[in-house]
Amino acid sequence: MRQRIAFGGLFLLLVAVPIAQWLNYPFAVSFLTRFAIYALAAVSLDLVLGYGALVSFGHAMFFALGGYVVGISAFHVTDAEPLFGWLGSNSALIVWPIAMLACGVLGALVGMLALRTSGVQFIMITLAFGQMVYFLLVSLQAYGGDDGLLMKRPNTIPGLNLANPTVMYYVCVTALVVWTAFCMRLVDSHFGMVLRALRQSERRAINLGVAPHSHRLLAFIISAMGTGLAGVLWANYALLVTPDMASWAKSGEFMAVVILGGVGTLLGPIAGALVFTGLEGVMSALTEHWMLFVGPILVLVAVYGRSGLLGALLKERHV
């Protein structure tokens, strides 16, 4: 069932834009690009939330850091003096790996401290780090402060023009597919089985010789890098990075997407991202208080559909 859903979803992702253009819905390309970016962030969060039982409420800090690395690098290329002797770069082949590496380092620092605790304490520590990053970005007046930082043009990839919305969409879809496939291989590997064993019974896993801290820390770092990649894509899509990307509200959105689609399924969060961004698009056109309508839907899903939209269909769900 999981393979059928995966191939069916991939087919829909590939044909969605041509169908939208044929039906003369140009705004659909922007919506689908936004959906793909949210889905990438949600899949990354589900790796630690669904398989590691780590409820991170500050994952948006990695989303923001990935975006700001791209934005700051582009800023120094066009508008500012060199940064510590570095002229900056607008090349995706240089900046994107740096952004993911920076998110991995931040993930390691946060993870080493947060994983000393568990439960509510873990949630509060990740939330605290997320807010620290948020206020740090607000204080960076040289990079726009509250108003954020504009990018004059997207990053460059040889042979591709990211300024073209259709090209940007397929780049985002490619990143989503590759990252999801990587996460699926990861959770099916020995490493993934250890993570699930720790979730089911940490004491039993330790008795079998498993080192819980190192496995959870590595999962947290990988998840941070995936969320950072989503932030990189967002910066190139919106050509704007703001401190709000690191806010607790954004972390809550990512968590809502995962819960809506199905915790611990990897494919479920992709469906959750489609529904969430669709509801946001429709409801925000009617009222700025769109969460008043989306909130009850999330409550109903949490109460009556604990496995989310796809959790019941995915027989291979790992819990």
From TrEMBL:
<dbReference type="InterPro" id="IPR043428">
    <property type="entry name" value="LivM-like"/>
</dbReference>
<protein>
    <submittedName>
        <fullName>Branched-chain amino acid ABC transporter permease</fullName>
    </submittedName>
</protein>
<dbReference type="InterPro" id="IPR001851">
    <property type="entry name" value="ABC_transp_permease"/>
</dbReference>
<keyword id="KW-0812">Transmembrane</keyword>
<keyword id="KW-1133">Transmembrane helix</keyword>
<feature type="transmembrane region" description="Helical">
    <location>
        <begin position="255"/>
        <end position="279"/>
    </location>
</feature>
<feature type="transmembrane region" description="Helical">
    <location>
        <begin position="291"/>
        <end position="314"/>
    </location>
</feature>
<feature type="transmembrane region" description="Helical">
    <location>
        <begin position="217"/>
        <end position="235"/>
    </location>
</feature>
<dbReference type="GO" id="GO:0005886">
    <property type="term" value="C:plasma membrane"/>
</dbReference>
<keyword id="KW-1003">Cell membrane</keyword>
<keyword id="KW-0472">Membrane</keyword>
<feature type="transmembrane region" description="Helical">
    <location>
        <begin position="93"/>
        <end position="115"/>
    </location>
</feature>
<dbReference type="Pfam" id="PF02653">
    <property type="entry name" value="BPD_transp_2"/>
</dbReference>
<feature type="transmembrane region" description="Helical">
    <location>
        <begin position="167"/>
        <end position="187"/>
    </location>
</feature>
<feature type="transmembrane region" description="Helical">
    <location>
        <begin position="122"/>
        <end position="143"/>
    </location>
</feature>
<dbReference type="GO" id="GO:0015658">
    <property type="term" value="F:branched-chain amino acid transmembrane transporter activity"/>
</dbReference>
